[in-house]
Amino acid sequence: MSSPRSPVPLKYQVAVLLAGAHLALAACSAANLKPFKDWGTPGRFVQAYAQLTGTSSRFSFFAPGVAPETKVTFEIHKASGEVIQDDFTSGNEEMNLRVHSMLIRFALKDIQDSLARSWGAAMFGRHPDARSVTVIVYAFALPPMEGYRAGERPEWKEQYRAVLERRPASRSASLSPVAP
């Protein structure tokens, strides 16, 4: 003898429906389908939801869809004529994560010069005897599969270079304080 099934509460039905819609949206994004873009206001709501939840992300694991890994190095030219190399690597994982976040943003062309100047200022602070700092950003270029089969291999390619000269100290910085 079987017991009668109790009906599924409405809140569970709604939760399953919303979870299914969320997964369907993620699947559409992964497949690069945008079925909601022509829906007007409801479509904009769905797109905003997808952006907020991360379901709008595409999943690209192979070149050329993968953003290249980047690294930055600095050539420090000291007043003595010595040239040394430096970078932002640290034993602190949080610091390395922050550096990685800056490097990701370096792909935005309109902030590259500002970011390079900021990094250069950090290097001038780290090396007070530096005359100039050369900022060099490299990208790890992955060849397409056809190129790889033909013998091409991944390599670090210079993507950006800027030479920053130390500015002379301003006159006001060298003046003695005024007594009242």
From the structure above, extract its key features.
four-stranded antiparallel beta sheet, alpha+beta, 2 domains, 180 residues
Structure description:
The structure is a single chain. This protein has 180 residues and is of the alpha+beta class. It folds into two domains: 10-53, no CATH class; 70-167, no CATH class. 39% of the residues lie in helices and 20% in strands. The protein has a four-stranded antiparallel β-sheet with strand order 2-1-3-4, with helices on one face. 7% of the residues are buried. The model has no long low-confidence stretch (mean pLDDT 84).
The major β-sheet equals: 4 strands, antiparallel
Counting structural domains, the number is 2
- The whole-number mean of residue pLDDT values reads 84
Element-by-element helix/strand order:
HHEEHHEHEH
- How many helical stretches? 6
Q: State which percent range the strand residues make up.
A: 15-25%
Order of adjacent strands in the largest pleated sheet: 2-1-3-4
Distance between the termini: 100 Å
Global geometry: elongated
The low-confidence runs, each spanning 5 or more residues with pLDDT under 50, are none
Class from secondary-structure proportions: alpha+beta
Signal peptide: 1-26
Protein name: Lipoprotein
Keywords: Signal
